[in-house]
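Researcher: Structure for this, please.
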Amino acid sequence: MIITELLERNAREAGNEVALVELNPALRSNTESWKEFSLIEEGTDPRFRREMTWGEFDARANRIANLLIKRGVKKNDKVAILLMNCLEWLPTYFGILKTGALVVPMNYRYTADEIRYCLDLADASVLVFGEEFIGRVEEILPQIKGTQLFFATSAVRKDIPAFSDDLFALAGGESVSKPAVASTLTEQDYAAIYFSSGTTGFPKAILHKHLSLIHSARCEQAHHGQTHDDVFICIPPLYHTGAKMHWFGSLISCSRAVLLRGVTPEWIVKTASMEKASIVWLLVPWAQDILDSIDRGDIKLEDYDLSHWRLMHIGAQPVPPSLIRRWKEKFPKHQYDTNYGLSESIGPGCVHLGVENIDHVGAIGKAGYGWKTRICDIDGKDVEKGEVGELWVAGPGVMTCYYKNEKATAESLSGEWLRTGDMAKEDEQGFIYLVDRKKDVIITGGENLYPVQIEDFLRANEKIKDVAVIGLPDKRLGEIAAAIIEVKPDCNMTEEEVNNFCLGMPRYKRPKKIIFADVPRNPTGKIEKPKLRAIYCGERLVEAQTKA
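Model: Predicted structure, token format:
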């Protein structure tokens, strides 16, 4: 089975049921008060709440597929998507898959040069883009002359850029029947090229087969038990494997999902209440913001019906145990899970904690459904329990390769095993704890410092909103640990306070430099340490144009 067959099954068996809801609270005419927002009010922007049934979803995907095929798209071609989260994102994704082409989701933060670079790297012959990207695409038109351009119109926009075709208007005239090529695809066919997040340099193109996609759906349901009655709130960007592969749990269980465009604490809680959400996946900063808003009294839980909310899970980064303790104080009935994964292992799930293991918060868990793990030394040999080594994973979701990059592929793949680049250790019970990224380890006076351990310690301070620890050059010690601290908006903090708080750590682990500043994170919640090192260490940040 391939992932598009799940959509077709849902359309047959539950065609009139709602599959997707898009909410865009920022477009509401009165953002101060949007009670009962599931009902469209007079004067409200029509894009505020939109929905789509499973039948409409599959029909739109088929129309898009048939249009692309008519325009010359064939099996193993590459078609890129550059869209903000919206109701049309997933039908476009599935339409591309139904042509037999590879879908190439692109980061909405890419600059014009990065868009050009990634189109070239992936050999994309078609680009589907939204209105937010008109200027960036127009800027690179001379360099992408051979690329077919389709504009994905919003619900209200009528004007189309002169240099592109209107995807949805043209697709509207196509057949709703499944293209013949879609029936010939198997799990061993190529399906997608994703880009690495670029936290350790410029993104690499990651090639996956259909096997990876369908396994991620099976894995997600095995971990979180989605049923037809669940409602999932999806907030992170769909171009990334994390958000989409969690949504695959809704796809495989034929259950409703809400695409929430906005991450304010109030919007998240109101959406969970009004849409009767049962599963919400958060990033660490969002969970912290919700808890802080509750503590300040900005959110009063008694004002909302959250009785349906059964699971809150977090991924994309190490999770401070102090955060989950706070969360359980506010939401004692919630199940909790943490998910670990990489785009190279098709997103979340190759390691997960499991809702039954909340007493092991702090660990990322054990091998996920269908996955295997190892902790290895520099020579690829298993280390002893409790020793730090590199986490290796193997399973049906491991990438085929880094597309057009044999050197990087050889460095990351060893037979069936993917070297994650994350340093970890395993306890006697088999639970894995992340220590840090291999490239982020700080060596100071011959001692290895793992920034994640220092960051977790500092996040326990009630005044600290976020923190990142990086190494700064030092003539005597080689490197010293510097803590970039983002203080909560309603708090003041001094360097002396931080140093006194750090007395609870071994001396060699204490940061030698304190910097009060914002902590930059990418759309998937990962700290952008290359950016911080460029600011504070003078390191050159790799940009797209230097790689072109």
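Researcher: Any notable elements?
Model: The first helix runs from residue 3 to 14. The first strand starts at residue 18 and ends at 23.
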